[in-house]
Amino acid sequence: MLSSNGTQATIQYFLNLIKAQSPGVLLSIFMTDRDQAQVNSIRAAFPECRRIFYCWWHVLRAIRTHFNTKEFPVLWSLIQDWVRTTDDNEFNAWWKYIEQDTSVPKSLAQYIARDWLPYKEMWSAMSRQNRTIFEKGDTNMLLEA
């Protein structure tokens, strides 16, 4: 989102302005970097929008700050695939590995369980199936570049 002030009030004002100027546009998907002010503003301005996704680049960047990816290259590769899998069984099996394997840093598994699993519908590829070509994006980095 473009804003010089990232407060919820400012973002919500901006979104309501867009909504007022384009009443015929029905937004079906938003993508954010997991900024809670943005998420709250989107939900307030567009309550009919049921899909708010987290950008995969930002998701992976946040997760990788909780362990040394060079020390755990296999784990890092698995996490990158885990975010993008559309198979429920695969997702659950990989989570079980992350959660239970003693070679995985316990602090990482706890971080993911606490900060990411409760919101998996916002970042997991399992929630991003059957979208049109216009809804296929997986990053907001193109806007930020």
Structural class: mainly alpha
Strand content: 5-15%
From N to C, what is the helix and strand string? Answer: HEHEHHHHH
Euclidean distance between termini CA atoms: 12 Å
Mean pLDDT: 88
Strand order, main sheet: write it out: 1-2
Biggest beta sheet attributes? 2 strands, parallel
**Number of contiguous helices:** 7
Unreliable runs: none
Radius of gyration, in angstroms, nearest whole number: 17 Å
Helix content: 40-55%
Overall body shape: elongated
Number of domains: 2
The counted number of beta strands is 2
Please outline the helices and strands.
Elements: H1 8-21, E1 29-32, H2 36-45, E2 51-54, H3 56-64, H4 73-84, H5 88-100, H6 106-115, H7 141-144
Parallel strand pairs: 1-2
Structure description:
The chain has 145 residues and is mainly alpha-helical. The chain folds into 2 domains: 8-54; 56-122. It contains 7 helices and 2 strands, in the order αβαβααααα. A two-stranded parallel sheet has the order 1-2. α1 packs parallel to α2 (36-45) and α4 runs antiparallel to α5. The mean pLDDT is 88.
